[in-house]
Amino acid sequence: MGTDALSQNRSNLASPAKPSGNRIEALDAIRAFAILTITINHISSLTVYLGRKGANFPTYTHFGFSSAAETFVMVSGLLFGLAYFSKINRYFYHRSIGRMFKIMAANCVLILLIFSVVSMSPTEVGQVTGVSLNGSANWNAITSALTMLDAPFLATILLLYVKVIAILILFRLALRRTRLIVTISLAIYAFSQTRILSGLPWLEGDFNPLSWQLAFVIPAVTAKECAVWLNRSVNGRGFVVAVPFILVILGFVLKASLRYLTDIDLQEQFLFSKSHLGPLRILSAIVSFVFLFQIFSYLQKYFPKLGNIFGAIGANSLETFIASVVAVYVVGALWLLQPSTISYWAFCLAGSLAVGVFGYLFTQWKRMAI
User: How far apart are CA 194 and CA 270, in angstroms?
Assistant: First the structure.
């Protein structure tokens, strides 16, 4: 069953996730949820760097071995594949390269916004984020960021997207066959876990592209199959539907147990590494992704208005992500004016709400403009 079946005949899959064109609204809703989660997590990180102490605002990231970033990348890969990868080659290359240039342009806008916010913020914000505003260092930092040779605090995921799309284009040029692409992607991921090439500048940073390409490439090249399988996971009965929920609970218990028994930072360990997308981390991300798909599919079915709101927020994720990063920098500056636990919690709620409102209104404006 192909992508067209998903688009043209909803009843064939009996899916509570409403397809729209080559999109599935539950996937947009998941992406919205991931962006809002990322917003709160980034506010937590920045305020900690600025001196905040105490518990972080709870998000689903704290209840497993993966974060919202993995979910965001996998959903983006799946939607990218549904939109572009099933087309004939000339459309795939044209649209993929066009997407890369759009991300580069968005990165330029984001960098200028970040430096603008930091220029009006207390000096501590620039110090902890590494966004320099002093003389030649300022110009060098801006030039490196605009050319995507480097990225300021919280903006590295755009650099990752350009790299993984470039990797996917190279795979399509050289390999063409889906099974071969999946095999090579897995092999490159396995090789990246050896960390032999970790010293290379292209591979440094928060996200190693040789590892993270797995979370984008495989959903992209198997998008049709993944979409059908995801719908079956919702339409199944009994134990089949319960499996992701059971695994999520087991992951939470295991993580809580490890934290209780040891003080080791799991993100720095091989199996759970974030920068190299450790094996157990990617498995946890897959389970969380399927679980979230089930949740938002049922939300779309039984509470369609709320599901549509989340879908609208996630429909234009690039612009909403830019708003998220800018909001985090603004919140960091505002929190310094009133540094307290109460203000932190209030800013987490206000910041995520502002990002959600922006994403929803931007999508509505874009739909009206078409």
Answer: 9
| C-alpha dist (Å) from residue 356 to 138, 155, 328, 362 | 32, 19, 13, 10
**Residue at token pair 């636990």:** 341
Contact status, residue 111 vs residue 146, Cβ threshold 8 Å: yes
19 contacts: CB under 8 Å, gap ≥ 6 = 6, 7, 10, 25
State the Cα–Cα distance between residues 164 and 276, nearest whole angstrom.
Answer: 14
C-alpha angle 121/123/129, rounded to 5°? 90
CB 212 within 8 A of CB 66: no
What angle separates helix 341-369 from helix 317-337, to the nearest 10 degrees? 150
Alpha carbon distance, N-terminus to C-terminus of the chain: 31
Rounded Cα–Cα distance for residues 141 and 149 (Å): 10
Report whether 217 contacts 264 (CB < 8 A).
no
Q: Could you list the pLDDT tens digit for every one of the 370 residues in the chain?
A: 344 433 333 333 334 444 444 457 899 999 999 999 999 999 999 999 999 998 889 887 777 777 889 999 999 999 999 888 765 556 788 889 999 999 989 988 998 899 899 989 998 998 888 887 665 556 666 677 666 667 788 888 998 999 999 999 999 888 878 899 999 999 999 998 887 776 676 666 789 999 999 999 999 999 988 888 888 777 765 555 566 666 666 666 666 666 555 665 555 566 778 888 888 889 888 888 988 898 898 888 899 999 999 999 999 999 999 999 999 999 999 999 989 999 999 999 999 999 999 999 999 999 887 6
Nearest alpha carbon to residue 355 among 315, 325, 311 = 325
β 19-20/23-24 pair status: antiparallel
